Amino acid sequence: MEGFINFLKPPGMTSHDAVGFIRRLFQEKRVGHAGTLDPGAAGVLPIAVGRATGLIEYLDAVGKSYRAEMTFGFATDSGDDTGKVVERLDEFTMPDEAQIREVLASFTGEITQVPPAHSAIKINGRRACDLLRAGQQVEIPSRQVQIYELKLLQLQGNTALIDVKCSKGTYIRSLCADIGSALGIPATMSFLVRTSAGGFSLQHSYSVEELKDLGEKGELESILLPADKVISHIPAYELAQNRVKAFCNGLLTHDRRYQEKYQPHKDVLLRVYSQGEFIGIGRYSVAQGGILPDKVMINR
C-alpha cells in the first residue's frame, strides 16, 4: 500500500508517535509525516505510506490553517500553557474587540517572527528543545513568514479565539505572544488545532479510533490518497512514452514546445505523467532547456 493519510492527530501525541502508530497499523516501515505538529496541538497531520514518503519534501511549501485560543494575562517560556510562567499580570484591562481587530490587521502580510526556543528547529544539527533540556542557551534567528488571513472569531473573558491562514514555518505560539506584546499584555497560546495543510482538511481527516476500526475491517487501503493528487499544486507535464526510460535513468529530455509555450525564466517543478501513469517529479531546467528527473516513482 502507498499513498497519503489525512491523519487527525490528537493532543498529547507527538508527530513521531503518529508515524509509529501508522507504521504498526499498516505494517509498513516506510512511513513519514509532513509538517510537524506540537505534541499539545491537535489537527491535520499528513502522513505518507510506502513510496509516497519520497514526495513529502514537495509538501513543504504548502500553506496551513489553524484555529487558536489566546489567553491574556501571562506568558510562558514555551509560548503555550504547558510551559513555565515567566510573566504574569494579576490585574489588567482586556482590550475591546475593535482594538484586537486593529492589531490583528497589523500582523497580516509578511511579518518577522522569532520561533520559540522550545521547538524542533535545528541549531548546529541539534533540536533547540533538546539543547534547552541539556541546559544550554539557545538563540533562534528571526524569520520572515506570511500571514494570509487573521480573523477574530470570539472574545470571552481573558481569551480570544482566532483563525490563521499562513505560510510554512509560521509558529502560532510566537504569533500569539507577539499579538499580546502589541496590545501591551502578555499572552499565551492555550489551544491549537490545525484545520488544513495544503489539500488536507480537518473535515476529511481520520482519527485514531476510525483508523483502528478500518484496520479491523481490512479497509485501510480505501482511505489512502494517491500520492500525485496530494501534490496537485505542482503543475502536470505529459512525457512522451519513448522518453520514460531515459527519464528514469536520469537523462535530460529537451522540449522546445514547453519552452515556447511557457517561456520559463526560472527552473520549474513538474508532476510528470506518461499515458496517464504518474512517473515522478521533474524539473524544467532553464539552463539546459529541458526536463530533468527530480524524483522517480516507478521502476523501468
What does this structure look like?
The protein is of the alpha+beta class. The chain contains eight helices and 18 strands. The chain has three domains: 92 residues, Pseudouridine synthase; 134 residues, Pseudouridine synthase, CATH 3.30.2350; 61 residues, PUA domain (Archaeosine Trna-guanine Transglycosylase, Chain: A, domain 4), CATH 2.30.130. Helix content is 22%, strand content 35%. The strands form four sheets. Strands 1, 2, 3, 4, 7, 10, 11, 12 and 13 form a nine-stranded mixed sheet that branches. Strand 16 and strand 17 form a beta hairpin. The longest helix is centred in the first third of the chain and has 12 residues. The chain starts with a strand and ends with a strand. The model has no long low-confidence stretch (mean pLDDT 92).
Keywords:
Pseudouridine synthase, 9-stranded mixed sheet, 8 helices, 18 strands, 300 residues, Archaeosine Trna-guanine Transglycosylase, Chain: A, domain 4, alpha+beta
